[in-house]
Amino acid sequence: MTPGQSLSGGAAGTALLHIEHARTDPAAWSTVAATLTRAVADGVTTAPVASLYYGAPALSFVLHTADGLPGIDQATATVDAGTATVTRHRLDTAHRRIDRHQQPLLAEYDLIGGLTGIGVALRRSSSTDLLADVLTYLVRLTEPIGGLPGWWCPSGPNRTGPGPPGGHSNQGAAHGITGPLALLAVTLIDGIHVPGHVDAITRITGWLDTWEQHTDDGDPWWPEIITLDDLHAGRLSQTGPLRPSWCYGTPGIARAQQLAARALGDTARQHHVETAFITCVTDPRQVDRLIDRGLCHGTAGLLATGRRIAADALTPIPLTPLLHRHQGHAAPDAEPPGLLEGSSGAALATAGTLTSWDACLLLV
User: Fold this and answer.
1) Among 72, 90, 105, 293, which residue's CB has the most CB atoms within a 10 Å radius?
2) Which residues are annotated as a binding site for Zn(2+)?
3) How far apart are the C-alpha atoms of 311 and 307, rounded to whole Å?
4) Considering only the top CATH level, what class is 105-361?
């Protein structure tokens, strides 16, 4: 893999920061152009590994975010065509897997490497027909296979190590089922609807309702994963909420449910998940678990998630404490420049959202 075309850690992701700055400072467009040149210097892949965070879909998302920059029309058309090729190939592979009644790997459907993320790129490029095809796939993904949810993964959440016996259900926004939930919700809000759309949202939220947990103080939270042992026992091995991150924690799960509630007009759910977010971020035992300032699992991600939750909230949610916590995390000496775990993402959390760059996190 070549690093430039990575939205996570390469120049493609760094470009989002410069594009956000350029919306208020036209002088920054020259930096945008130079950064985009670095992003494509080693080529842009349309291989099956391509995703929102790598290759043609990543560059499609970035170039459409930079809409208006002179001289990018041909490049944009090229990566859009590549994204369409990747999408069709991956959809065909996924549907054939479902037809065989086999369980999916996370990378088939998740936000970071899978079809949910590709759907985000298609949404940004207004490729409505292909996006509808992705949504139709996500509807099928929610249908049970062999008595387990259709998104049940036969391996573990850590792709480099062994997983729990029998696989797991992943609830995280980055790699789990709340990524598809968020995409299904925002597209319904956009006015895009496919057969089974609402049923798919309802199946996912019903699963989250079944496995909702509560702290000793009665505050709601959701597990990062659910194993087959958990399922058979009817109770979790995870005994309490872990770090309140965007990628796996209560904030990301709450935002996906808030979007689902808005899509369905479910004010009871919306109030409930907003309360879950508030109690999470005001609990020192949870927020003190954040030890870095990145977007993925640090204070930047918490702030970015909180900003979008607060913007749609039925009751006011103060963001100043989250801002101060983020600003209080000094940059480490060897901080990488990337988006998800580096300085670009940390800076974007306070740079604004004029470009809706945070759609790559499915926060909007």
Assistant:
1) 293
2) 247, 296-297
3) 6
4) mainly alpha
